[in-house]
Amino acid sequence: MRRAAFLDRDGVINAAVIREGKPYPPDSLASMQILPGVRESLLQLRAAGFLNIVVTNQPDVASGRQNLETVKAMHEQLLQELPLDVVKVCYHTDADGCNCRKPKPGMLVEASVEYGINLDQSVLIGDRWRDISAGQAVGCACFFVDFGYQERRPQPPYVAVKSLPEAATLILSSTRSRG
Questions:
Q1: Residue 10 annotated among the catalytic residues of the structure
Q2: What are phi and psi of 70, to 5 degrees?
Q3: CB-based contact 6:123 (threshold 8 Å)
Q4: Is 44 within the bounds of a domain?
């Protein structure tokens, strides 16, 4: 069985747009900025045997605030520029009641079946309570990138970090000490 680093997109891989203390996705390909140290961290995780899998809610597509082609173009660019294995996306809103929208763990479960992933040996890195809840639901170790958003906070257990590079450093040091 393989292990994965499940990564939220906005706020972990690329910069989120902050309005009134809450994070939002960039509205265009041109405005999407990959955060510092992300590429290097993903390369280190991959070298340590992790699959790098983005799991992202993009409900603005269903609500009509974002164009599907724009989101797909963003993901294509991320896949070309970064050492990512796949991008899993939920386009639903909460009202749709789907199993893939975080905090439900559907995207993680789907990836585990498709790629033979041991969820207990995997990690999730996210910047919102929904991310952490999804990872906890399947037994992943969770790393919360804490930007101090003015919204609900995740329930423990999780490790609070300031960035994906900090999370990767902790994950890799833990992996080395076990290995």
A1: yes
A2: -65, -45
A3: yes
A4: yes
User: What is the pTM for the complete model shown?
Assistant: 0.97
Residues 29-64: tens digit of each pLDDT: 999 999 999 999 999 999 999 999 999 999 999 999
| Residue 46 lies inside a defined structural domain of this protein | yes
| pLDDT digit string, tens, across residues 79-125 | 999 999 999 999 999 999 999 999 999 999 999 999 999 999 999 99
Residue 73 belongs to what domain range? Answer: 24-113
Is 60 in the active site?
no
DSSP letter assigned to residue 178: H
Q: Is 101 part of a structural domain of the chain?
A: yes
Candidate list 10, 60, 127, 131, residue with the active-site label? 10
Say which residues have a Cβ less than 8 Å from residue 72's Cβ, sequence separation at least 6: none
User: 124 phi and psi, to 5 degrees?
Assistant: -125, 135
Of 8, 60, 127, 131, which is the active-site residue?
8
CATH number at residue 49: 3.40.50.1000
Q: Is residue 5, in this structure, part of any structural domain at all?
A: no
Residue 4 has phi, psi (to 5 degrees) of: -135, 155
The C-alpha atoms of residue 132 and residue 129 are separated, in whole angstroms, by 5
The total domain count for the chain is 1
Beta bridge pairs of residue 178? none
